[in-house]
Amino acid sequence: MAGLFFDGGAASVNQQATPTGTLSPLERLAKPTVPAEPSQADLGAQDYWLYCLPCHGDRGQGLTQEFRETYPPGEVDCWQSGCHGKRPYENGFTLPMVIPAVIGEDALQKFANAAVLQSYIFAAMPYWDPGSLKQEEIWRITAFLLRENGLWDARVELNASNAEQVVIRKVEASPTPPQGTSRASGVSLWLLFPVLVLILLLFILLRRFRRGSP
Known about the structure:
Distance between the termini: 97 Å
CATH superfamily of the largest domain: Cytochrome c-like domain
Oligomer: single chain
Order of helices and strands: HHHHHHHH
CATH architecture of the largest domain: Orthogonal Bundle
């Protein structure tokens, strides 16, 4: 699928130089440049471009209608027969109808931390050939996604020793019990008290009756 975009070796374009909305499809799909001394996340941007962008979008927005307009004319409808629909082309594959965003508000919330995200990418991605990427590529992609989501500053290398400390999923505080709950519990106990007293009295009377029997 990446070949739809990158066949022919399009020249690199620095996608950070101009707002995405003003870029042509060719510019949007061009390989991102990196600084002279690239960070792990910078290299991850290029790995993302090669392995992830065709399905997850040039901005990590997912396979939206707007992004699919950048596809070659005959490939805009990804799910048509002969493309990536129910009857894909030879050696092709069928795409899910929904491909989620990986960058943006509420993205990646199914993952508790960076270690879980990295393990998932390693086992399940890329979709057409899961498990085919090298560990260092997966770490770079993970670092890139975390940086783009404001979760990692990329000044420290992301690896197995620190990934669990990078929290992704937003954990909501446990809700406080509604007012009056404790009082209601106390009322319930007081209602049970007469019943318990009655049972105790019946037990005493039964014992006395048995003692008085011949």
